[in-house]
Amino acid sequence: MKLLVVSATKSEIQPTLNHFSCTGDRLLETEKFDILITGVGMVATAFALGQHLDANKYNTVVNVGIAGSFDRSIALGELVNVVTDTFAELGTEDHDQFISLPQLGFGEHTFHTSPTDIPNLKQVKAITVNKVHGNAASIANTVKLYQPEIESMEGAAVFYACQQTNVAVLQVRSISNYVEPRNRENWKIGLAVDNLNSWLINYLTNL
């Protein structure tokens, strides 16, 4: 059985694709691992995994990408190991109160990594969102609700799909920016991508 690397975009893992001479559109295959490019967001990710995640073919999924951090003790460019991820927006508003999916009695919204130790990477709690935060009031409300350390647009969807198919999963994110009122001048996307791919190339080389 093989390992499946899942990324929302090629740009986040282009150095890895170049290193291993991976070519193709959505599913790029090698002898030891495959790479699935899902598209941005939880819907595109769920659809792509529904098409390609085969429990008889893959024993592990590794979700990688960049992310924003609520926690300023995490350095820009630092890699983290996401151990818990929550669909932050699934629920309903009751005036000023947000009622989550579990509180409504409609199922879970938080999912977990498989028990895996990734040396030298901080373990963090994440949320998955449809729109990344860039408003001070919504950031404050989200922190109050979930106390997240990072956010992405795909992570919880990957965890959910792997739970449903009984495939082991881990998620590694590289921090490109802090979650704050939108300010592109503060972003370090290039650094985050470089560090993510250095880790990923080493990880895949040592399979």
Short overview:
The chain is of the alpha/beta class and 207 residues long.
Description:
The chain has 207 residues and is of the alpha/beta class. It contains six helices and eleven strands. It has helices at residues 14-19, 42-52, 101-104, 136-146, 155-165, 189-205, and strands at residues 2-7, 27-29, 33-37, 58-69, 79-87, 91-94, 97-100, 110-112, 122-128, 150-152, 168-178. The strands form two sheets. It has a five-stranded mixed barrel. A hairpin with a 2-residue loop joins strand 6 and strand 7. The mean pLDDT is 95.
Layout of helices and strands, plus pairs?
Blueprint (H helix, E strand, L loop, with lengths): L1 E6 L6 H6 L7 E3 L3 E5 L4 H11 L5 E12 L9 E9 L3 E4 L2 E4 H4 L5 E3 L9 E7 L7 H11 L3 E3 L2 H11 L2 E11 L10 H17 L2
Parallel strand pairs: 1-3, 1-4, 4-11, 5-9, 9-10
Antiparallel strand pairs: 2-3, 4-10, 5-8, 5-11, 6-7
Helix pairs in contact: 2-5
Distance between the termini: 12 Å
Principal-axis shape equals globular
Low-confidence stretches: none
**Percentage of residues assigned to helices:** 25-40%
Instruction: Report the strand count.
Output: 11
Task: Give a quick account of the main beta sheet: strands, pairing sense, barrel closure.
Answer: 5 strands, mixed, barrel
Question: Structural class of the helix and strand makeup?
Answer: alpha/beta
Sheet-strand content, in percent, reads 25-35%
Mean pLDDT: 95
How large is the count of helical segments?
6
